[in-house]
Write a structure and sequence with these properties.
The complex is a heterodimer of chains A (324) and B (256). Chain A has 324 residues and is mainly alpha-helical. Chain A contains 14 helices and two strands. A two-stranded antiparallel sheet of chain A has the order 1-2. The model of chain A has no long low-confidence stretch (mean pLDDT 87). The longest helix of chain B is centred in the middle third of the chain and has 20 residues. The chains are: A mainly alpha (324), B alpha/beta (256).
């Protein structure tokens, strides 16, 4: 007899425990280049979580995630350079501003039908990049903004600065863990259930009193806020932002993480972000063939695992737990 | 009980291009009533339903619910604030979700009155969901679906899905339910069960009904009053006995 997994149930306690133990010991297991790849994966996990709320839970395919990622990166860079604000302020401001900007963008875009909505969200990334390139007095155009300070935390009279790769890894890990908890709480809430109802059948959901339009705009804003958080972390890590922060390839990477990992699951997206960012980094050994190999891997995954890796993870846990 | 009818529709009209799908229909449903709506295919019954429930907006006419004008309200607002629900002929359940989740979703609009409250993560929200789950299990057991409550609703038979849909609509404690062909495509044994459910909800839970149904035996047995539509207009209205002998109705059905 088949049963249906409920929202958030895929994130089982043993999964979380194993992941936490592995995560804590990672700097001793990996070299600095591999640790760098893990930091990139953790950074991309944030916008991917946001996109998963949209695509995986609410059923809205969006390519705008790189636009909010870029907005977050620029907000952080401008705040840090002009106002010397601490990391935590930049992070929260980036999430908040990206979320707020999503409102005027989402109101007209979400009136469109599915395919037109995808095109429209693609437009947001292109417009974002054009603004970053051409609003030179603020963004310095193609030169970008540089010397973004390493994250520092003012603690009373002391201040603690994260300057090593290992330090930044642990910082990213803490942020990713908090984000995971936030997503878990959202999808387990009654709102998460309504989001799934909208994904499954919007008209039926509305007939049962679910205000689909309001949920869609709210989820679009939450998704954008996650994108902004990722951008802020990225800016602090690279210490540089350029108009290339707004790139289509970021949007597609985030989409691949969600769809390949397992839309509508948390564990799948965690797995996806490590697999696909890791794959992309590992393929740097053959720069000419990198994108071709990446594409072939995607094709293989789509054919072999059409629902992403989440069902596989679920089966693995059942096997370990001795169920069925 | 207030003086106004529970549902009062006045001169409802809706055209699609040059076709007048509904052409000035007035109809009312009294408190506690089961009212039937019949008519040949293409007579405008479904369009009438869609306009009355906010799925599409009428060109003209008024819809009042217990004296309150709800013309122009959206589908979800009418369900949530008016507590007037409707079923669909084809879309019946959330196929990928299990039976229990289907019912819990339907109950949430009643337990969580606004969008912000649905993001609640505290003990209060969990308690409310838990009580919805208890209510859902009672309805599932009453509908004879206990064995399949954790199955994806889409894997069940058409008749079972209709029972799930009906049980779902009882979750938010509605005042009025508009049923669009509840018996279409289900076997005769289940027809009896669906009819019993409708009667039970009407008698014990005080839910009023407006029912579109092609099966004339079902309509005449369930409804005290029947309205007949033909070509977008009201052709006749009366008790089942009056309707079955009505000459105009017979001609409309036989294409005379």
């Amino acid at each position: 007899m088949s049963t249906v997994a409920r929202n958030g149930r895929d994130l089982r306690l043993p999964f979380v425990a194993v992941l936490a133990a592995l995560a804590a010991s990672l700097p001793w297991l990996l070299g600095s280049y591999e640790l760098h790849a893990v930091i990139v994966a953790l950074t991309f996990l944030l916008p991917a979580y946001g996109l998963n709320l949209l695509v995986g839970y609410t059923g809205l395919l969006s390519l705008a995630q790189a636009a909010f990622f870029g907005i977050g990166a620029y907000v952080t860079a401008l705040l840090a350079i002009h106002f010397q604000t601490p990391f935590i302020v930049n992070l929260l401001a980036s999430g908040l501003i990206a979320g707020l900007i999503a409102f005027p963008l989402g109101v007209p875009a979400l009136r469109l039908r599915a395919t037109s909505f995808v095109m429209c969200t693609l437009g947001f990334v292109i417009i974002g990049q054009a603004i970053a390139k051409n609003w030179i007095s603020v963004t310095r155009g193609d030169m970008g903004l540089e010397s973004i300070p390493r994250p520092s935390f003012p603690l009373g009279p002391f201040s603690f600065t994260v300057s090593t790769t290992t330090g930044f890894y642990y910082l990213s890990l803490v942020i990713a863990a908090v984000a995971t908890l936030a997503v878990w709480l959202i999808v387990r809430s009654p709102a998460g259930r309504n989001m799934v109802a909208i994904r499954e059948n919007e008209t039926l959901a509305e007939s049962l009193g679910v205000p689909a339009w309001r949920y869609k705009i709210i989820v679009f804003m939450i998704g954008a806020a996650f994108g902004g958080l990722g951008g802020a972390l990225h800016a602090h890590y690279l210490t540089v932002v350029t108009p290339l922060t707004f790139q289509m390839q970021y949007s597609t990477t985030m989409l691949v993480i969600v769809l390949g990992g397992g839309p509508g699951t948390i564990s799948g997206v965690i797995f996806g972000s490590f697999l696909f960012v890791g794959l992309s980094e590992a393929l740097r050994v053959a720069p000419e063939l990198r994108m071709i190999a990446y594409g072939l891997c995607l094709l293989a995954i789509v054919f072999r695992f059409p629902r992403g890796f989440a069902p596989l993870i679920d089966r693995a846990w059942r096997w370990i737990g001795g169920e069925r | 009980m207030s003086a106004a009818p529970l549902l009062e529709i006045e001169g409802l009209a809706k055209s699609y291009g040059a076709v007048r799908a509904v052409d000035g229909v007035s109809l009312h449903v009294d408190h506690g009533e089961i009212c039937g709506l019949i008519g040949p295919n293409g007579s405008g019954k479904s369009t009438f339903f869609d306009c009355a429930t906010g799925l599409s907006q009428p060109d003209s006419g008024k819809v009042r619910l217990d004296g309150l004008e709800i013309t122009g309200w959206s589908l979800d607002r009418i369900a949530r604030e008016g507590r007037m629900l409707r079923s669909f002929q084809k879309t019946v359940v959330f196929s990928a979700l299990d039976v229990e989740e289907n019912l819990v979703i339907a109950g949430q609009m009643f337990a969580f009155p606004n969008v912000a409250s649905t993001f609640g993560i505290g003990a209060a929200a969990r308690t409310r969901v838990e009580s919805l789950r208890i209510q859902a299990r009672e309805l599932i057991a009453a509908a004879g679906l206990w064995e399949v409550r954790h199955m994806p609703a889409g894997n069940l038979s058409g008749g079972q899905q209709k029972l799930i849909q009906f049980a779902s609509m009882l979750m938010p404690k509605p005042r009025l339910i508009l049923l669009d062909e509840p018996m279409a495509g289900i076997n005769p044994k289940l027809i009896e069960r669906v009819m019993d459910s409708i009667r039970y909800a009407n008698r014990e839970l005080g839910v009023s009904f407006l029912v579109i149904e092609h099966n004339i035996d079902v309509v005449t047995s369930l409804c005290a009053r029947i309205v007949v539509l033909d070509q977008g207009r009201k052709l006749a209205e009366g008790t089942p006995e009056e309707i079955v002998v009505d000459q105009a109705v017979r001609e409309a059905y036989l294409g005379g």
